[in-house]
Design a protein that fits this description.
Layout lengths: L12 H15 L15 H7 L15 E4 L16 E4 L1 H7 L16
């Protein structure tokens, strides 16, 4: 792995993701309902911040996915927070699942 600096939050992320997402969570408190995807329109901003590299494998990722470092299942309150999002390859994202603290955070790695 290699350390990444958190990309800056896009200008309208709060308006387009955080506010409607948290409002949705308020109306849908049952965790079995999951979460509603408001973050996908910002995938390209996240990919740019990671230079199109998977945050976990550091391999070039032309498509990639938005990964919630702290899973939406265990940390619903972080589902719509820019600081919780990482750019990742789809297979790593799905394999990571709800491991949360068992996976190194690319933002918390020290320099060699």
């Amino acid at each position: 792995m290699m350390p990444f600096n958190p990309p800056p939050e896009p200008r309208n992320f709060d308006e387009k993701v955080r506010q409607p997402g948290n409002a949705w969570l308020e109306k849908n408190p049952d965790p079995k309902k999951g979460t509603r995807d408001y973050w996908s329109p910002f995938k390209s901003s996240l990919a740019d911040g990671f230079n199109n590299l998977c945050g976990y494998s550091v391999m070039y990722e032309p498509v990639g996915t938005v990964d919630h470092y702290r899973s939406r299942e265990n940390y619903r309150n972080l589902a719509y927070e820019w600081s919780n999002l990482r750019f990742a390859s789809a297979w790593i994202n799905s394999s990571k699942g709800t491991l949360d603290d068992q996976v190194l955070d690319p933002f918390d790695l020290g320099e060699d």
